[in-house]
UniProtKB/TrEMBL annotation:
<dbReference type="InterPro" id="IPR001763">
    <property type="entry name" value="Rhodanese-like_dom"/>
</dbReference>
<keyword id="KW-0560">Oxidoreductase</keyword>
<dbReference type="Pfam" id="PF01266">
    <property type="entry name" value="DAO"/>
</dbReference>
<dbReference type="InterPro" id="IPR036188">
    <property type="entry name" value="FAD/NAD-bd_sf"/>
</dbReference>
<dbReference type="GO" id="GO:0016491">
    <property type="term" value="F:oxidoreductase activity"/>
</dbReference>
<protein>
    <submittedName>
        <fullName>Gamma-glutamylputrescine oxidoreductase</fullName>
        <ecNumber>1.4.3.-</ecNumber>
    </submittedName>
</protein>
<feature type="domain" description="Rhodanese">
    <location>
        <begin position="45"/>
        <end position="83"/>
    </location>
</feature>
<dbReference type="InterPro" id="IPR006076">
    <property type="entry name" value="FAD-dep_OxRdtase"/>
</dbReference>
């Protein structure tokens, strides 16, 4: 299932990948679990959250087993756009309306996450092309610009390290008018980051099993039993770090996450002078404040990578998937609108991955059942947040008091509101964005 060597040519000759465009999958795997094991803590899922939790617990003396259905890094962790950001998901005005009192705590959590992950990269000496450039939420219309100005005020009022910037002065491409500059974080190669974490994990004392899908977790009075096709793990406690895939596990709280498929496209290399001539003179990641965001970033390979706009839901099992033509065509259309002088630049590669959306738009951590915990759902913002959340949960299980940042996202009960995202609502959001773009073009 996870042999993804075959990938096909799709829209306009773009090569589609069922894995990530950032890195090749590992040449060999950790063993599959066969037989029975006991341990202190079993971690299910080897993305940023699971690896970070396992490493922290091992550092603190726990006997840890990590079980991963593909290979560590298979999920969103090696596929994402590489924005290490101190932002929460969701429009700040909406968050302020929903969580006025909690917002400063949530902002502190997200800011600490960015700083933690930056520090983790340095501490583990992971070569992932990290550039501490910060990121900009940049408007493409006067209406969006007014909104970003207001958002900058809300965020600063709640303690975020951001400022409002004018596009041209700041070095954004001409079609971006300005927006919220998030000083913390920057850009990296998430494939190198995830596989670098995997290397550290494999060299650590954590017993790691790959191609080992957890089918069930059964809690009992003094622990939990984790079942995989070839065996079982008896653990005192279990961490679910299964993110978008949590829906497939019966033990995960019902309605906790909605898996959403998100796609990325990368161009052929662009002459740096041509890129600078668009006005993009400052190397910084750009995200638009549309209902469904667009993102544009330079890569160390001299290419431009862009994504999101059109999202897909998963009626059935998540499985292995490539981007679809309609989404790639729409993303390329968006790239041409934002970078008209680069309309001859060919898109070369596309891939995608599952993000875990929650109905609160906030990440979630808590206890799913006795001795079974979860750290999940960073709503497409987990590059910084997932390693932090996994580590905070690990510290809690190792006996620390609840950290204030963990408390900010902790769920007292594993109950979740019905999901708001569905294929029709995502299509409606995309349509609203395109109408807004069209109106702006007409007025310009
Ligand atoms: C296209 C895309 C772009 C994104 N861009 C950004 C970005 O720029 N910045 C940002 O902050 N975030 C971004 N994200 C989100 C970010 O990648 C995720 O939030 C983050 O990787 C989540 O990490 P995780 O460890 O929780 O989950 P994952 O990386 O998804 O890991 C979960 C792991 O659990 C394993 N698993 C699941 N079920 C089981 C089971 N039953 N048994 C065993 N193993 C199991 C999976 O195989 C997987 O490896 C993006 C995501 C995508 C897909």
């Amino acid at each position: 299932m996870y042999d993804v060597a075959a990938s096909g040519a799709g829209f306009a000759g773009v090569t589609y990948s069922a894995f990530s465009g950032w890195a090749d999958r590992p040449g060999d795997f950790a063993p599959m679990l066969e037989g029975e094991l006991t341990c202190d803590i079993a971690v299910v899922g080897g993305g940023y959250a699971g690896i970070a939790a396992a490493l922290r617990l091992a550092e603190r003396g726990a006997d840890v087993v990590l079980l991963e259905s593909g290979f560590c890094g298979w999920g969103g962790s090696s596929r994402n756009a590489g924005y290490l950001s101190n932002a929460l998901a969701g429009d700040p005005q909406l968050l302020n309306m929903l969580y006025a009192r909690r917002l400063p705590h949530l902002i502190r959590y997200a800011d600490s996450a960015a700083r933690f992950t930056e520090e983790l990269i340095g501490r583990l000496a992971i070569d992932c092309d990290y550039e501490p450039t910060g990121n900009v939420i940049a408007a493409v219309s006067p209406g969006q610009l007014r909104r970003t100005r207001r958002n900058a005020e809300i965020l600063r009022g709640a303690g975020a390290d951001v400022e409002f910037v004018e596009g041209r002065d700041f070095g954004l491409p001409q079609t971006f008018l300005g927006g919220v500059f998030e000083r913390a974080g920057g850009l990296l190669n998430p494939g190198k980051f995830a596989l670098g974490l995997r290397e550290v994990l494999l060299a650590s004392g954590v017993r790691t099993y790959e191609r080992t899908t957890v089918r069930a977790v059964e809690p009992h009075a003094t622990g939990a039993v984790v079942s995989v096709p070839g065996g079982r793990v008896r653990a005192e406690r279990v961490i679910l770090a299964t993110n978008a895939y949590s829906r497939d596990l019966a033990i995960a709280p019902k309605r906790m996450v909605t898996p959403i498929w998100t796609s990325l496209v990368e161009t052929e290399p662009v002459d740096p002078e041509r890129l600078a001539a668009t006005g993009w003179t400052r190397r910084v990641g750009i995200i638009t404040p549309h209902t469904i965001l667009e993102n544009y970033r330079p890569t160390p390979r001299g290419t431009v990578m862009f994504g999101t706009r059109r999202l897909r839901t998963a009626p059935g099992a998540l499985g292995v998937r490539e981007p679809d033509d309609a989404v790639v065509a729409d993303l390329v259309r968006g790239f041409h609108e934002r970078f008209p002088s680069l309309s001859d630049i060919a898109p070369q590669r596309a891939w995608g991955g599952w993000i875990a959306m929650t109905s609160s738009l906030l990440p979630v951590a808590g206890e799913a059942a006795k001795n079974v915990f979860y750290a999940i759902g960073c709503n497409g913002h987990g590059l910084a947040q997932s390693p932090y959340l996994g580590t905070l949960l690990a510290d809690r299980l190792a006996g620390d008091r609840m950290h204030d940042d963990l408390a900010a996202v902790w769920r007292a009960r594993p109950r979740f509101a019905p999901p708001v995202l569905s294929a029709p609502t995502l299509h409606a959001a995309w349509t609203v964005d395109r109408i807004a773009d069209r109106l702006h073009r007409r007025r310009a």
